[in-house]
Structure formats: structure tokens, C-alpha cells
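Margin note from the TA: students keep mixing up input and output lines. Inputs are the sequences; the output is the structure of the whole complex. Example:
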Amino acid sequence: MLRAMQPAVKTPPVAPRSGRHFLQIPGPTNVPDRILRAMDRPTIDHRGPEFARLTAEIFAGIGQVFGTPGPVIIFPSSGTGAWEAAIVNTLKPGDRVLMFETGHFAMLWKKLAERFGLAVDFVAGDWRHGVDPEVVESRLAEDRRSSPGASADGAIKAVMVVHNETSTGVTSRIPLIRRAIDRAQHGALLMVDVISSLASIDYRHAEWGVDVSVGCSQKGLMLPPGLGLNAISDKALAAAKQGGMPRSYWDWEDMRRNNASGFFPYTPATNLLY
Amino acid sequence: MLREQGLAAVFARHARHAEATRRAVRAWGLEILCADPAEYSNVLTAVVMPAGHDADTFRAAVLSRFDMSLGVGLAKLAGKAFRIGHVGDLNDLTLVGTLAGVEMGLTVAGVPHRPGGTQEALTFLSGNSQL
């Protein structure tokens, strides 16, 4: 509509095509015709009974995709919003976190974390390897040794890693990272970006002891862009109840309270949920 | 749709398509960016462009000649790598079409490679219904 209302912008002419365009980028991915047809319906009342039935079905199924019986929050956002939500619900400015330079998206998540005042311990990388579990263990063990008097957790509050680094095609091994944290007997939260791995590469939020999984709609879920997802452990929920940063749009509690009755605290991406 | 197919089958499909893609890349004589086979991604394969050739020129040739979008090299990989996505709503023939487009694109853009990567993928896919 906007395009129809505005004067034409000069762009290079596109030759007429036959057949289907091949969209072979690593996301947003091809949306199946069935899903496109499902979305091609009038927007319904997001405060009405039909919507509540729809969300009940979605919330019953979405946990299986993450491999968790626990809560999953669905934001109308990109994956970047879900990154932000993971941070503002659980951490506060000055908190130390451990991150790894696996590629472009790890760099972007680090930049976002620093804008919230987190002190990022950033382990340099060559963009051809994933997160080294041995480095996770040694950094956390060192953190505990150098934090005398502090709790058993040390100063590092979270380990934040990208599961599948979309910029490089490298998949870090989350179970090995979990075991490394356990070997260091460190209490840091484990946060994992599953934006391009969710529903495509084996992933088990609960079994692997992940505290916050950060996902989105436009990759393995085969939806258009527009949904940001957080799967949350009990430990992350407790951290959110005790602290985090000032937040409103990204607040898990608000979402959970409303989701319990099938609704959202603000307008959801209605047609993406059909 | 995920529930109908079952997540395990979806994971296996991605693993199989990723393996077919990597076999094609190796047969072309090109380098996979991921250095550790234990960390290969099943949703995309990033391919290193041979020195002296620009990945974006190649991608532009593929788009204009074959109407296919390939992933751009991001940040410090700009021009140096391209990414083949094999994620989402994809079947064997879509993947084979993708690899054929890459192989023809390499020829069109004058990127040195050995022919036959697509054939490697065909052989793998027709010989393996599952991994």
C-alpha cells in the first residue's frame, strides 16, 4: 500500500521472470504455500475468544520445538528483540558476561550487550570455529578463583553463545559447553542464540540445561520475519524476578500473566500466529 | 507442518542436505569456511571464494542469470565468502536446483572450479534416502 501511494523510486529495471525465485539464503527462508494461505485471512480480534483458542494451541506446541516443558515467550519482534529481552530480564548494567567471537552475529549480540552496560569478556575467534568448551571451563574457573568472597558464582553472570553462527556456517556444541560450565562448578546463566538453528538442528533447551534460548520465526519455523522467541528456565525466571533492568515491552512477567489466559499485554503479530 | 514431519525427521533432512552440499563444494575444489567437521552447520554452508575473485560479483551473476539469491558474506567476510542456505522448506530437487545454479554461476562468473559438484550431490542423494 505504501509503495502504491508513494512516487516511484528509481531502481534498476528487473527483467520479467518465469518460474519460481530460488531464495537460498540462510534465512529468512522460503515460506511454504500452506503457511502463506493460512495467513491470507482477515486479522482477527486479538482480545476475542478465537484468538485465545489459537494461542492455547500455539503455546502447547512451541515448547516441543525448543525441547522444554517450561515457558516460551513470543514477542512481535525480530530475533534482535529476543536478544534484548534475554538481557534486560536477567542482567543489570555492570554485570560481567562471557561471549565468544564466532562470527558476525556474535559480534552484534556483544555490541547490544555493551549498549546495556554489560562488561563483556570477549574471547577472540577466527570465524571458522565454534565456541571452545575448554576455554569456557578455564575462563569460568579463573573467574571463581579471582572472585574471593563472592558467591560460588564468581563475577560472570552469564555465558552467551550463538548455537549456529549464520555468518560462517559453524555450529557450536551446546552440550559440551554446558558440561564445561558444570565442571567449573559455576553458577552463570547459559544463554543461547538459536535463531538459525531452531527447528532445523537438534536442540534441547531443558535437557542441555540452557537458561534462555533466543529464537525467531523466519528460519526453521518457515514463517515470515516478525516473531522473537525466548525459552526460559526456572533459574532465569528467578533471576528475572529478583532483578534485571528497567523494562516494559520486553518484560517476561507481563507476557506470562497475559499469555496464561491466551492473550498478550499489547498487540501481537496476529496473522503470523495462524 | 513440523509436527506432521516430526522434528527428528526435520533434523535428519537438514543433515542430509548439508552433507550433499558439502560434497558438491569439495568436488568443485572450493573450500568450506567451517574448519572443524564436528562443527559443520546443517542449515547453511559458507564457501570461501578463491583469491582474486569477488563473491559479490559471483552472487550478482547467479541472481541475474538464474534468479537465485545466495547469502552475502557479512562484515569481514564481505566479498570473500558466499553462503548457500539449505534451511526451511526444501526438498532434494530444490537443493539440486540450488547447487546447479551455483555450479553454472561459477562458470558464468569465471570462478576457477572443477565441474561435477552437482553430480556428486545427485549421487549422494539418490544413494541415501536417509543418513
